[in-house]
């Protein structure tokens, strides 16, 4: 068994623990935000943390109604420029807490009196120390290079904080069920074997989703890239039809995340269109009819909101990549050319 697989399976317990660890800090942060007139949220992150930032952007804009900008950290580190963040809420995300460019964004914001928050897995990390408020993933050491439990705990922390900020009691209640839903999903992992075997020889693929699950398409493609070396490319369904669709060829694998919800109509249309192109479709959905349209499919639980389905979909993505890597004779724990901590500036 790989370390990656072990860490995937730890996630239900990790999610329960991370909320207990951060409950007080979340309350203090929300009290601070209530005293400020926040006009914009800015999030600085790289790699897998940037995918968590995309998720947070959708969640904040739809639940809180404040526009969110994803920072270009090189503005601070490469161009040595300073932007006005005085009335902003600035978030830095880095599992290691050592992302030098994200740290510079948060430091600059703090100097201007902005509210600053970080999400890391190390309480003594430079990013944690640079921000006024710190959300601690508290996952324990993640030994596999591919981030699994740190990514999911980051997203879970963010959506619990955002739901509380938005005073959305219904979503907060639904979020409590996520560890148990994930546990039930993990009891049926054998059904993935046949699906993964189908794709053991693929060299390239597209990964599609829309709305908040676009963040998971990005993360799923990254997991496939780094653990199997397959050329995986993620697109929002809306962008895919503006040009990339022309790259489709017969039998090319296309992985489509298709949970029921606001994006379902658009997703259904793209499934039909991709099917007509002759591509090979893997549908990940809680809708039986749509799953039946795929050449293969993976079932996720029913009745998930758009804020919760990404947490389940990312677990599917992690398991798919981990199993495919092993099937191809690779080690997902130590991908070639990669280190656990990547520092860019």
Automatic annotation (TrEMBL):
Instruction: Tell me where in this chain the SIS domain is found.
Output: 29-177, 192-335
Which UniProt key words apply to this protein?
Answer: Aminotransferase, Repeat, Transferase
Which Gene3D superfamilies does this chain map to?
Glucose-6-phosphate isomerase like protein, domain 1 (3.40.50.10490)
Xref: InterPro entries: GlmS/AgaS_SIS, GlmS/FrlB_SIS, SIS_dom, SIS_dom_sf
Q: Enumerate the Pfam families for this protein.
A: SIS (PF01380)
EC number(s) for this protein? 2.6.1.16
- Which molecular-function annotation in GO is an example for this chain? carbohydrate derivative binding
Under CDD domains, the record lists: SIS_GlmS_GlmD_1, SIS_GlmS_GlmD_2
One of its GO biological process terms is:
carbohydrate derivative metabolic process
Whether Repeat counts among this entry's keywords is yes
| Protein known as | Glucosamine 6-phosphate synthetase
Species name: Ruminiclostridium cellobioparum subsp. termitidis CT1112
Q: Give the taxonomic lineage as stored in the record.
A: Bacteria, Bacillati, Bacillota, Clostridia, Eubacteriales
């Amino acid at each position: 068994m790989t370390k990656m697989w072990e860490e995937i399976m730890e996630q239900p317990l990790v999610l329960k623990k991370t909320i207990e660890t951060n409950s007080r800090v979340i309350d203090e942060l929300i009290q601070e935000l209530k005293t400020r007139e926040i006009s914009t949220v800015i999030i600085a992150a790289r790699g897998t943390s940037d995918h968590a930032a995309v998720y947070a952007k959708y969640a904040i804009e739809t639940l809180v109604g404040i526009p969110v900008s994803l920072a270009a950290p090189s503005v601070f580190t490469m161009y040595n420029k300073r932007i006005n963040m005085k009335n902003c809420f600035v978030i830095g995300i880095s599992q290691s807490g050592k992302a030098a460019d994200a740290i510079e964004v948060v430091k600059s914001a703090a100097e201007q009196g902005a509210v600053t928050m970080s999400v890391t897995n190390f309480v003594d990390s430079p990013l944690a120390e640079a921000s006024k408020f710190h959300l601690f993933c508290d996952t324990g050491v993640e030994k596999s290079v591919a981030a699994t439990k740190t990514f999911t705990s980051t997203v879970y922390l963010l959506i619990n904080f955002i739901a509380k900020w938005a005073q959305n009691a219904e979503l907060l209640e639904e979020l409590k069920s996520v560890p148990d839903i994930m546990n039930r999903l993990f009891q049926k992992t054998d059904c993935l074997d046949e699906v993964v075997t189908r794709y053991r020889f693929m060299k390239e693929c597209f990964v599609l989703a829309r709305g908040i699950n676009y963040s998971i398409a990005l993360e799923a493609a990254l997991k496939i890239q780094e653990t199997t070396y397959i050329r995986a490319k993620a697109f929002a369904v809306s962008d895919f039809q503006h040009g990339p669709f022309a790259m489709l060829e017969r039998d090319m694998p296309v992985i489509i995340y298709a949970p029921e919800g606001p994006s379902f109509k658009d997703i259904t249309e793209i499934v039909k269109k991709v099917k007509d192109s002759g591509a090979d479709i893997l549908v990940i959905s809680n809708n039986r009819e749509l799953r039946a349209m795929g050449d293969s499919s993976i079932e996720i639980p029913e009745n998930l909101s758009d804020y919760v389905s990404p947490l389940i979909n990312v677990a599917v993505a992690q398991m798919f990549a981990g199993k495919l890597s092993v099937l191809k004779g690779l080690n997902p724990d130590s991908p070639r050319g990669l280190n656990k901590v990547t520092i860019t500036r």
